[in-house]
Amino acid sequence: MSQAAIRRFRCDNWDDTMSDVELCYKPAVEVLELFREKQLSPVELLDALIARAERVEPIVNAFASTYYDSAMAAARAAEARYQAGGDPSRPLDGLPVAAKSDGESAVEGTISSDGCSWLTDNVDDHTNPSMERLLTAGAVVFARTAMPEMGWTWTCHTKVHGVTRNPWNPKYSPGGSSAGSAASVVSGTSTVAMGTDALGSLRVPSAMCGAVTFKAPYGRNPLHPEVCFDFFNHIGPITRTVGDAALVQNTISGQHPLDHTTVPQQMVIPAELPDIRGMRIAYCVDLGYFPVTDEVRRETLAALDALRAAGARVEEVEMPWAEQIIRLGSRYTDLVYMDMFDAAIRDHPDEINDYTRFYFECAESVDPREIGETLELAGVIWAKHFGPLLQRYDALITPTLAFHEVLAENQPWEESITVRGKSYNDHDGVMTALFSIFSRCPVLALPSGFTDSGLPTGIQVAGRPFDDITVFRIGAALERHRPWLDVPERRPSIDVRIS
Predict the structure, then answer these.
(1) Separation CA 405–CA 457 (nearest Å)
(2) Which residues are within 8 A (CB) of 167 and not within 5 positions of it... i.e. 6 or more apart?
(3) Which neighbouring-strand residues pair with 313?
(4) Domain residue limits at 340
């Protein structure tokens, strides 16, 4: 739908000095307050986001499918409710949300393509539990976001949706697999977005694009019954602020009858979080073996200095035990998903991307006995190393990625990244798997700074099992001391490239 075709609405107290771009970057918490105060209409916000998408999508390509007409109808209905005094049962009434185009984020009447050309007509006949909670709270899904085929690369290029690019520099990748969700949020084409995560599919694109995301403890956020028993699987928000991540997380969490694995306790993240004075935080820059660049190390240490300034006691720890369990964990997931790759190759040999065949070959090389070995080793590591570490410290911080200059169309077998004279593929820099294996640990991923070339860097804050509030406290403290995306100077210059 063109901008001209959308009815624009001005509330009585509308601030005409606010530009549409500024409106597109308003945090969800502030947007909802403006709705309630009748200073902004959901129609006006959605109108601005659509106009923004029409401007930047030719470069970023974050959306796999859009639902502007139905979303605008929902926005008008929300506008009427606010004008009538609001509906307390709809705390997110009229909030535009973009959702990843995988089956785990299904929304009835929209398309879950999983990045596959043979699923472009796969219209969902149901809404998955976490997404249903957002819709019940009044959120409006106006787009499904791009992802790599079956969500299994750390870049995002497919035969069906083309190449999704990093908003900061389109030469580079926005990460994977929740790539479109992160790219959209940072581009200002969605207020918040949803993604999923097995080995890092929320955290990697958030780090590549400079956004906030939360991998909740496994069992906190309900999943579809077909995937809920896989303890690597998670669904969660990608946002621009810590407060927005908490807002979405509070909405979707809690026990659900369709997900046997969800825990009864709903952890509510308070709007006002205590400071971190006196908190003990451990950090490890390379987890014992990752090829961390000097720039990532520098920005990680700068973020840690900010936490020290906020009153935390921050100490370096060594983790020589991490490498073996991380490598085994990746092999475990390869084997779990092998049948999915096999079916794609068998049923759609001419439609699949080359990397799907590559991942099938990787999975075929896994000895099934490695699953038992992984689970046994995880128990030993927790009992002897990781568990005791988290008893001594309130949280552990590491970089999210060892390096960030991954080309947008990089293939997983290409060793195109050089660190201190040695070549690596994109998988070699992903530092998220440890916290997927120990999946009851909450992880808040946050921007930490920038590389010399202007790409964002990120850290991940991992807490004790089910201690969500602590990682949010740390995230809020970092955001206060080193803010991101809050002013034009700290946002990508997409408009410059367009003009």
Answers:
(1) 10
(2) 56, 60, 174, 183, 186, 187, 209, 492, 494
(3) 280
(4) 17-498
Q: Are 104 and 89 in contact (CB under 8 A)?
A: no
The DSSP symbol for 382 reads I
Give the tens place of pLDDT for each residue, 439-463.
Answer: 999 999 999 999 999 999 999 999 9
Read off the CATH number of the domain in which 21 is found.
Answer: 3.90.1300.10
In a domain, 11, yes or no: no
H-assigned helices in 118-209: 129-136, 179-187, 203-209
pLDDT given for residue 330 in this prediction:
86
- Confidence check: pLDDT of 1 > 60: no
Query: Region 273-289: what's the mean pLDDT?
Result: 98
236: nearest Cα among 215, 259, 251: 215
Name the domain count of the chain.
1
E strand or H helix at 22: helix 20-24
Q: Is residue 73 part of a domain?
A: yes
Kindly state the average pLDDT of the residues 225-237.
Answer: 95
Strand partners, 96: 140
Q: Using pLDDT thresholds of 50, 70 and 90, give the confidence band for residue 293.
A: very high
Element (H, E) at 340: helix 338-347
User: Confidence band (pLDDT; 50, 70, 90) for 265?
Assistant: confident
User: At a CB cut-off of 8 Å and minimum separation 6, what does 352 contact?
Assistant: 116, 149, 344, 345
* Phi, psi torsion values for 64, nearest 5 degrees: -90, -35
Name the β-bridge partners of 418.
Answer: 423
Residues whose CB falls within 8 Å of the CB of residue 51, separated by 6 or more in sequence, listed in order? 3, 20
CA distance 139 to 93: 6
pTM, entire model: 0.96
Is there a domain that residue 142 lies in? yes
Instruction: Tell whether 7 is covered by a domain.
Output: no
